[in-house]
Amino acid sequence: MDGRSHFHAELELLTEKLLHMAALSRKALADALTAFSERDSALAREVIDRDTEINRMECELDDTSLRLLALEQPVALDLRRVVGAMRMTIDLERVGDEALHIAERAIFLSHLPPAPLPAHLDELAFRVTEMLDKALSSFQGGDTDLAQEVCRMDAGIADLNVLVLKDALQQVENSSRTTQSLERSIHEVVAGRSLERIGDKAANIAEATIFVIKGVSLKHHCRPF
After folding, report:
1. Which pLDDT does position 117 carry in this prediction?
2. Which end of the chain has a smaller Cβ tally under 10 Å, C or N?
């Protein structure tokens, strides 16, 4: 195998590892939301324990990316693929962190009976999960149109999280400020904030996909190219 063939084999392996890390982060989010809704402390602890594997993958991907940059000195599309992988690795690790935070809220609430997510929190969870799925699909399929859609979806996430906060305040008012109501509302607000951050990371992944494929940097802008 010549030098370039070896490099491209390494690059494909880097992408495979990145997709594996993405699957771990996506599962962490799904399980954390289930644990939160169902007050499942055992599942929540699984999410927390599995975060070690996501962190390990981040270190492994960083090492591989830096080695490829230092030894192979890639250019053009190959360079963008390595740099894009480094960007996505950071965001996927943070998705895992926020899923862990939601799982921690589930443990705090595990002494309470299961309860469906409040309407706006449920909508926020759905939309953020959809954003993450589409961002990962856009990367895997090289679909910049789908990536741009994720960027557009990000616009309403912060506003939706404000409604989660308002719902929590209203819930406290309607329940005469009982301890359980206060506790539940606080953890719902914290979970909403984590979901908003995951939406930001999904948008970052979409931006990185566009950067890799088109060579256009949308960082912090998410504007049409």
Report:
1. 85
2. N
Lowest-confidence segment of 1-5, 20-24, 26-30, 58-62 by average pLDDT: 1-5
In the predicted model, what is the mean pLDDT of the chain?
A: 92
pLDDT at 176 (0 to 100):
63
- Identify the H or E element spanning 104: helix 76-108
- Joined together, the tokens standing for residue 163 give 């409604």
DSSP 108-174: HTTTSPP-PPPHHHHHHHHHHHHHHHHHHHHHHHT-HHHHHHHHHHGGGHHHHHHHHHHHHHHHHHH
Rg of the chain taking only CA atoms, in angstroms: 19
**Burial tier of 24 (Cβ tally within 10 Å: 0-12, 13-18, 19+):** buried
Residue 208 token pair: 């990185």
For residue 14, what are its two tokens?
């880097």
Going by C-alpha positions, the residue among 58, 80, 59 that lies closest to residue 11 is 80
What is the reported pLDDT for 41? Answer: 96
Q: What's the confidence (pLDDT) of residue 116?
A: 80
Tokens 């449920």 sit on residue: 122
Tokens of 122: 């449920």
Look up tokens 């606080």; give the residue: 186
Q: Is 111:123 a contact under the CB 8 Å cutoff?
A: no
Report the predicted TM-score, pTM, of the whole model to 2 decimal places: 0.92
Quote the CA–CA distance of 163 and 124 in Å, as a whole number: 10
Distance, CA of 41 to CA of 191 (rounded, Å): 15
d(CA 166, CA 21): 35
